[in-house]
Structure formats: structure tokens, C-alpha cells
Amino acid sequence: MSEKTTAAFRKAVEAGDAEGVLATFAADVTFNNPVTFRPFEGEVLTSVVPRLLEVWQDLHYTAELQGDGFVGLVFEARVGHRYANGIDLLPFNDEGLITEITVKVRPLTALQALGEEMQAALAR
Amino acid sequence: MSEKTTAAFRKAVEAGDAEGVLATFAADVTFNNPVTFRPFEGEVLTSVVPRLLEVWQDLHYTAELQGDGFVGLVFEARVGHRYANGIDLLPFNDEGLITEITVKVRPLTALQALGEEMQAALAR
């Protein structure tokens, strides 16, 4: 089941489709965003995800890895005019829904730009 | 062959053993560090790797992922008093040696601290 969710998640993120992304999440999902130590959790993601998707430009996945009960999705993107290279780590529950999303991004210039854009997007 | 290299790399990084880490690298290795856009390449790593290993405290791997010709190693660590959570992406050549290492770290506070520590370590 996680294969189907992974494919739906990839497609939705690349299309900037927030509803599609949210449909792949379990109700109690934890979002470990790349910027802040504190995660976003549960209900708040309904308003946070659409705003976060706006921050990325030209995000496209370039590789997929399989772990024990989770997948890793490698991506490239831009944040403003900064090149970003990142990974989403996604574990799944028994229904094949994403229970946690951990995003890591390099280099530092991209993560700093992402922090600024995220703050601006969340303030709107 | 890459399983053996992966095990040797994990062990050497966790032990802060620079020679052990360098022994897992191909001669033309590219190191996409988490901080700078520009990679470290080839010979310079002989002096860079020992310094970079000093920057991490309590680094330990928590999970392993398999991709097509490469592995992902998830780790937790500290940089100073900052919690860091990262991943190493490692592709291999036909001899089972690491041809490229891409490191991604979150959250922003850890990556900023890492940038400062890295600069200080490289200046010594």
C-alpha cells in the first residue's frame, strides 16, 4: 500500500496540490520541517501545507530509496533563486498512510531562504 | 561489495576514524557537504575529513535505506549543544567504493552551527 501512497505523494508535491498531499497523511501525522526543531502536528497541517508548497519552485524528485517501513524521496528544487537539494523521509502506518514526514535540505543558503519564505508564508 | 563499504563507513564515522572513512572513498570522490553549495573534491579530502569529523558529537546512525546503486544512512548527532538529524547519501563504483557523499542536516540551527564549526575547523 505504501507504493501507492508514495506515488500519490510525489505527484501531488510536484504539482503543488495541497489536497492531494494531505490525502496521503494519517490523521496524527508529524511534520519535521527542515527549518525548525519543533514539528508541525495534526490539524494545523491543513493550513500549513498549502503555504509550504508555495515556497518551493520547480520541485522534482530524482531518486527513491527503500528502508524498513519507510521510503526516502530525493528532490531538487529552487527557493527563490537558490538551488536546493533535499530528501523526504516517510514512514507509513498499516493503512499505508504517511505518519511522519522529515525533510532535510542543503546547502545552508537554501535552508536560510526556506526559513525566511516559510515565515512569510505562515504569516499571511 | 557496497554492503561491506557501508558497514566500514558507518563504523569509521561513528568512531571519528578519519583514515577508516577515507579508505571507503574512491580516488575521485565528491563531497557535497551540508553547508556549502560548492563540493570538496579529491585530494583535499585527506585534510578536510579529519577536521569535519571533529565537528560532530555523539554521531550515531539510526536507519539505512537502499536505492538503485546507492544507500542512505540516517543519523542523529550534536553540533555543540544543538541537536542535529541528518542523512548521508552514498553511491558506489564497481569496486564498491564511495564515489560521492551528499549530507543533509536539519534543523536550521544545527546547520548554522555546523557552518560555523566547519569554518573554524578548516581555518586551523
What does this structure look like?
2 copies of one chain form a homodimer. Chain A is built from 4 helices and 6 strands; from the N terminus they run ααββαββββα. The first copy, chain A, has 124 residues and is α+β, with helices and mostly antiparallel strands. In chain A, a hairpin with a 2-residue loop joins strand 4 (70-79) and strand 5 (82-91). In chain A, helix 3 crosses helix 4 (108-123). The longest helix of chain A has 16 residues, at 108-123. The first copy, chain A, is globular. The first copy, chain A, starts with a helix and ends with a helix.
User: Structural class of chain A, please?
Assistant: alpha+beta
Strand and helix order of chain A: HHEEHEEEEH
Strand arrangement within the widest β-sheet of chain A reads 2-1-6-5-4-3
Radius of gyration of chain A, in angstroms, nearest whole number: 13 Å
Largest interface summary: A-B, 32 and 32 residues
Can you lay out the helices and strands and say which pair or pack?
The structure is a homodimer of 124-residue chains.
Chain A: H1 2-15, H2 18-22, E1 25-32, E2 40-41, H3 45-55, E3 57-66, E4 70-79, E5 82-91, E6 98-106, H4 108-123
Parallel strand pairs in A: 1-6
Antiparallel strand pairs in A: 1-2, 3-4, 4-5, 5-6
